[in-house]
Amino acid sequence: MLDFYLLIPCYNNTDGLIRSLLSVEYSKEKYKVLVVDDGSNIPVSLSELPEVLLQKQTIEIIRLSENKGITEALNTGLRLILDRNDSLYTARLDCGDTCTPDRFTKQISFLSVNTDVALVGSLCLFVDHKKNIRFVYKAAEHRYAILKQMHLKCSFIHPTVIFRNEIIKNTKLYPYDYPYAEDYAFFFELTKKYKTHIIQEILVETQIDTNGISVKKRQQQIRSKINIIRFYGINKSLTCRGLVRQYLLALLPYKLITQIKHLFFHIEK
Question: Where does the Glycosyltransferase 2-like domain lie (predicted)?
Fold first, then answer.
């Protein structure tokens, strides 16, 4: 039985995929990397990956015939993982994002000890090297604080998480109803039903991408977040606060929000 699959969707970003995989450290026999090529213009192939990666990791690539979006890419990979039933957990990472060397050791150890926790994440460092922007995405630690915070923002940064496969068999996959915010809905549902946790250490670094979904599809993403808060909110007070926050964010430019985060949550190198 494997400890986990590392699920990575990829679309036209082989360089980012390589950078991410080079940061992963864990015993080769205890995990596998599953890359879902979401219809890249040039198919992702093992021949394009450095030999050092192929020596230290077991990497499998499955390809979608056309670009179907991240939700379908994630669910395609997750269905395969669950069907195989040969791993305890599924971990996530996005192309271009990197892990600390001890990320998976710490998260697997935590889940092994805390058997009632279904989902664990970590703090995340956001970086824009060109603009010298560095800030930490702060998040609550324990379940009920997380559940409260989820009305205001998604406490879990997607590439920091790892979750129990047994739990996912008894719940839903990533929902298709919330474009560009499928992870928010997925984590909100898990947090309502099960115990979740966020390790208060920076275990992942993610690149601020001005061409990414959170920028290019921002208004659609905010609309999805509004619908998620309305559907998953646990009481009127928290739901109203969350909705007001999203409406205010919709009025502010992304660049300004990034600068504010850098000002208040900046961390030195």
Answer: 7-137
C-alpha to C-alpha distance for 22 and 11, rounded to whole angstroms: 18
**Phi, psi dihedrals of residue 162, rounded to the nearest 5°:** -145, 135
Burial category of 5 from C-beta neighbours within 10 Å (exposed 0-12, middle 13-18, buried 19 and up): buried
pTM over 0.90: yes
Amino acid 27: pLDDT: 97
Both tokens of 128, joined, read 């824009």
What pLDDT is attached to residue 258? Answer: 66
Residue pair 49/59 in contact by the 8 Å Cβ criterion: yes
Distance CA 197, CA 111 (A): 10
Neighbours of 206 (CB within 10 A): 20
- Taking phi first (over 0 means left), then psi (-120 to 50 degrees means alpha), and beta for anything else, what does residue 189 get? alpha
Which of 75, 83, 87, 208 minimizes the C-alpha distance to 136?
Answer: 208
The two counts, helices (H) then strands (E), for the chain are 11, 9
Q: Which residues of the chain have pLDDT under 50?
A: none
Q: What are phi and psi of 217, to 5 degrees?
A: -115, 30
Task: Please answer whether residues 108 and 203 qualify as being in contact, where contact means their C-beta atoms are separated by less than 8 angstroms.
Answer: no
